[in-house]
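> call design_seq(struct)
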């Protein structure tokens, strides 16, 4: 029995010296295949996660750039002039909630940047145009703009604010790269309104400049040129304005200048000539007599 066992071990050692047995080879191949499948699956999953993360980062980066640019331009502006949809026109002053793409027009103190437009379009891009410069795209073709909506909010006694709503998605047909982001913010101006061009209303004879009796009255007005008024004027009163000029109080006429010529242009002018001490002042009016001659008529 002992001799048989020794003989068997010698034969086994000889067979091992010749290579793997078929059973061993099958086992090794199976283990390698299982390990390969596992490693391949792990690699594919890792690549998918990385690609998804890149898509998310791209969308988030571009939508953040748009929002931050709008915030900066609005804060630097002198006026949020209007928000509209489609082509600009004097009567186009709103952007309905049903519209996906709005345009905001900002007035800037710097003439080179005035006016500034920010808009989105159906092609999927966001654009900025400042002054006479070219329109520049804020976004690229790696993302698609789904909507860019603006809403102007007027605040009594304060600066207007602009509400911004934007949605973008990654530009890919692969469901594995599907990434969509939406952001909403409200930004207000920080600068006082400064204009370097005409200040015009959106419609003729439709809007007021302050209120008659408060609490939203302007304190003082200073003009370097002429002031023309199409209606009646009240001084010291806000009621009974049934005449061209209604004054509650006295009128003071003081002048030390030389009296102008009385003619058809100065007709109806009252003039007070201040005299030296001990001499009365003269009060005169420029009027025409029956002979159509113009002259200063003494009242006092």
């Amino acid at each position: 029995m002992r001799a048989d066992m020794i003989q068997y071990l010698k034969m086994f050692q000889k067979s091992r010296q010749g290579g793997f047995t078929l059973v061993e080879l099958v086992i090794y191949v199976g283990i390698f295949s299982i390990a390969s499948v596992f490693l391949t699956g792990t690699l594919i999953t890792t690549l998918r996660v990385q690609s998804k993360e890149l898509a998310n980062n791209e969308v988030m980066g571009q939508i953040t750039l748009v929002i931050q640019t709008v915030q900066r331009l609005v804060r630097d502006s002198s006026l949020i002039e209007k928000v509209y949809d489609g082509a600009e026109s004097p009567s186009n002053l709103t952007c309905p909630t049903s519209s996906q793409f709005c345009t905001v027009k900002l007035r800037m103190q710097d003439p080179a940047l005035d006016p500034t437009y920010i808009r989105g379009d159906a092609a999927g891009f966001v654009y900025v145009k400042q002054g006479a410069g070219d329109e520049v795209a804020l976004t690229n073709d790696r993302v698609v703009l789904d909507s860019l909506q603006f809403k102007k909010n007027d605040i009594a006694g304060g600066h207007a604010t602009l509400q911004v709503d934007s949605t973008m998605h990654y530009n890919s047909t692969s469901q594995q790269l599907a990434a969509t982001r939406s952001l909403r913010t409200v930004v207000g101006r920080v600068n006082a309104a400064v204009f370097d061009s005409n200040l015009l209303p959106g419609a003729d004879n439709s809007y007021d400049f302050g209120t008659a009796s408060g609490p939203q009255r302007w304190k003082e007005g200073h003009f370097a040129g002429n002031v023309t008024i199409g209606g009646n004027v009240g001084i010291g009163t806000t009621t009974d304005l049934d005449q061209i000029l209604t004054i509650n109080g006295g009128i003071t006429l003081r002048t030390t200048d030389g009296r102008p010529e009385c003619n058809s242009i100065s007709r109806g002018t009252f003039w007070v000539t201040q005299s030296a001490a001990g001499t009365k002042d003269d009060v005169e009016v420029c009027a025409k007599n029956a002979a159509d001659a113009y002259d200063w008529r003494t009242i006092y």
